[in-house]
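Hey forum,

I'm writing up a methods section and want to include a predicted complex as supplementary material. The small molecule is zinc ion. I've pasted the protein sequence and the SMILES. Can someone with a working setup run it? I'll credit the forum in the acknowledgements.
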Amino acid sequence: MDGGRVVYAVDQKKIVSLRFPTFWFEPTPQGLFMLQVAFGQSKYYSDNLAENIKRGIRQKLRRGEWLNLAPFGYMNDPVKRNIAPHPTEARIVQLAFDEYAKGTHTFLSLGAFLAELGVVSRNGTPLAKASIKRLITNRAYLGFVKHGKEWFDGNFEPLISPALFEAVQKILLARERPRKRKMKHDFPFTGLFRCGECGSMISAQWTTNRHGTKYRYYRCSKKRGRCSQSYIQEKTLAKQLRARLQTISLCDHYTDWMLGKVKEWEHEEVSASHSEIQNLSATIKASEARLEKLVSMYLDGDVTKEIYLRKKDESMRATLALREKLKDLESGRNQWVEPLREWILDTKQADFLVEHEDLHQTKRLVQKIGTNPIVRDKSARFSLSTPFRFVAERRHLLSSSAPSAHRSFSLSDSEVSICGEAGIRTLEGVSPLTH
Ligand SMILES: [Zn+2]
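Reply by user p_vandermeer:
Happy to help. Structure tokens for the complex are below, copy them as they are.
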């Protein structure tokens, strides 16, 4: 019952006297006045209290402090009045993100993975799907603080890099769209090739031969009408892809040397491009300004809370990713290093896949380095993207020379190795590379 109604009841003579431990009232005009003052004051105090609590929370948020019990992976640090990474749990959170980022996990298998690390529910069973999802979408690991439904910049150590977090969200999103999941594991090469005659996708089927052995084959889906193409067996297809990958493969001996060289260059490269850093800083500032504008639009009632929260979340995550990029740039990590390293690793992986049958990885690599993969007349073809054409065209230069750009480089007998059937051998004398 609020004060106004009490005063009204007294006015109507429904209440004739009130007694409180510190205050009493008789129904006289003075008494009524005193009553109004008393209610007014208590309302003032309780309003003030709520206001103080709100102000306290706002101050904590402004300082980036975590507001209540630390989430899994962190512990409350009473000295800093914030949260800090828990010595073992933080590592587990990172492992969970790393694992899920591989793209091979379901909530169930990730739950089993975590259970093996001792992370279980209260009754000892693996974590439920909802808990797993909460874990791998928790923005606290990015260093954000939650208040109500809203996230703020925190002032504690993040556990997960923005890149890893976004990679995990991407997989999560793809998983939540329940489509074409079933065939994936059965037919590694579906969705890769088009028919060279009619342009339809190549699809896959199981079949059993007269000896009762099951095998997989691929054929034109003929969705675009008449087509005279027949089928091709999976193992034939795999063999052809391996032969093609071999033309761009370099054995570990070369790739490891190249990777070492890249690392060297990376270290030498001390000063990152200043203009780039400036540009990025400007982009970040603009993005922060947009966020501020969004907040004032929300406060003015121009956007709904739902839109505001969604936009704010997107904006905060994007800004964080930009800041991370800036950090990379500032620490002198240049943009050419990663693509170069990736190119070397791809040629290394091609070499591996020539020797080891892994059809899913083969498909992924073909998708990555090849363009326009087609099957026609029982043979698979794809064009190479430029960096790999470069390897294919110059690979023969390596067949008799050592992996070195330095003319003085030579190999001892023990270093001479034979790199598989690729024919890259570092035998005989070492001749300098042709420049
Ligand atoms: Zn066709």
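Some notes you might quote in the supplement: Confidence is low (pLDDT under 50) at residues 400-435. Residues 3-62 form one domain.
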